[in-house]
């Protein structure tokens, strides 16, 4: 599998692993900026299965925080061993927005303002 250079933001790579707390693109651990899993842990397996079914293998172009993402200036560019990124599908759709709209993840206003749908506000 090719290595993804998230710095360039110009290469497509498949979303290869989906766990609520472990997303990987081309083997590289990522955190999507502006969204998080904030639902009860009892829903974790169901939500993970839904995300895998709908998104695993999806080609993505990712750019790190600090390179023009909705989270620039609001979150670190790395969390542990994961790089914090915004990922777009080939048609330009924001993966975090899709996951928030589908109720899989929840928007985090402290990171990205009102860019992503928050589970608390229903917005």
TrEMBL record:
This is Nuclease. It comes from the Bacteria.
């Amino acid at each position: 599998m090719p290595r993804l250079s998230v710095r360039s933001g110009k290469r497509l790579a498949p979303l290869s692993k989906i766990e609520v707390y472990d997303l990987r693109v081309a083997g590289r651990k990522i955190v999507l900026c502006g969204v998080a899993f904030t639902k009860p842990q009892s829903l974790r397996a169901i939500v993970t299965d839904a995300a895998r079914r709908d998104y695993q293998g999806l080609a993505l172009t990712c750019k790190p925080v600090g390179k023009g993402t909705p989270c620039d200036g609001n979150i670190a560019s790395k969390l542990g061993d994961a790089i914090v990124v915004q990922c777009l599908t080939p048609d330009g759709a924001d993966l975090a927005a899709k996951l928030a709209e589908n109720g899989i993840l929840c928007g985090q206003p402290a990171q990205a303002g009102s860019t992503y749908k928050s589970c608390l506000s229903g917005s």
